[in-house]
Specification:
Layout lengths: L3 E6 L3 H12 L3 E7 L5 H8 L3 E2 L2 H7 L4 E4 L6 H10 L4 E4 L6 H14 L3 E4 L6 H11 L6 E9 L19 H17 L2 E9 L10 E8 L4 E7 L8 H4 L14 E5 L3 E4 L3 E4 L13 E4 L7 H13 L9 H20 L3 E2 L4
Parallel strand pairs: 1-2, 1-4, 2-3, 4-5, 5-6, 7-10
Antiparallel strand pairs: 7-11, 8-9, 8-15, 9-10, 11-12, 12-13, 13-14
Length: 348
Amino acid sequence: MNALKLAVIGAGLIGQKHLELVAANAECQLVAIGDAQPKAAALAANYGVPFYQDYRTMLAEEPLDGVIIATPTQLHAAVGMACAERGIPMLVEKPIAATLAEAGSLVTAAEACGVPVLVGHHRRHNPRVQQARAAIQSGGLGQLVGVSVFFTLLKPADYFQVVWRTQPGGGPILINLIHDIDNLRFICGEIESVFAMTSNATRAFAVEDSAAVTLRFANGALGSILLSDATPAPWSYELTSGENPVYPHVPENCYHFCGTQGSFGFPQMQFWHYEKPEQSGWLHPLATSCAPIQTADPLVAQLAHFCRVIRGQEAPLVSARDATKSLAVVLAILESAQAGQPVQLDNI
């Protein structure tokens, strides 16, 4: 089987990670790098592939089986539609686009051209996230009652030397929470309404540093999220999952799922339930057990999945239409915080 010819458009931090993964995967062959910044030419030289400042020229000149789009978010839709017009399957980094209108344009173009789009909500490829989904979707906890989510950690002062991170759109809701929202949709089902409050009291930047969010799921379950990048705390997916070695791992939970027959903490995968149905209620002790914890690099798994998508062996785990729903929830959270009232999510 011939290696798939892939190009990466956008050579920033996440783009460079994709370059490493493609170069290390025998199913792929990196054939080109596109980036508007001339300095990325040195990176292309290191990989021994052509460099293009104009991605449109690259798409016209290079025979490609697939493209990974890791540009700034505001360019996702335009680059994606250019790929769709040429019939090139794509992996688009999250979020799918900057606005729902842009996301809709990309969805329409890709579907009209019959081009598969995989969106880079890579955490869905984590075996523990898939275990959590199976526990909820199988009814193992009974009817889902609610979920409590923490994203609480401290971003260092030098993080904010990049000016856009201090301005609206550069805060933890759009940058970080979209990962957790996508996880919740994948595990628990669709979110039908949100109510949010934000605060910038800690740093006094124009962007939020903390938020509290209430969710209502379509299945009737409720959810709560405490979000802050201004506290020295261990309860976040980043620190608890062990997924990314750049973050020091702590053996804590960041999500708690509660059902009518049991509950469990993620990512430690600790289950709680009553051993005998006739001896249930708060006067009886709970039994606990831990599911075997599976580990795998979700970015590696995502690239392998993308190869199978290109070959027509699998449908995208996170399609463009699906990823648009996660974007819609996050934008609704921002809208709710600004308006001071709940926001109902329309069908996307």
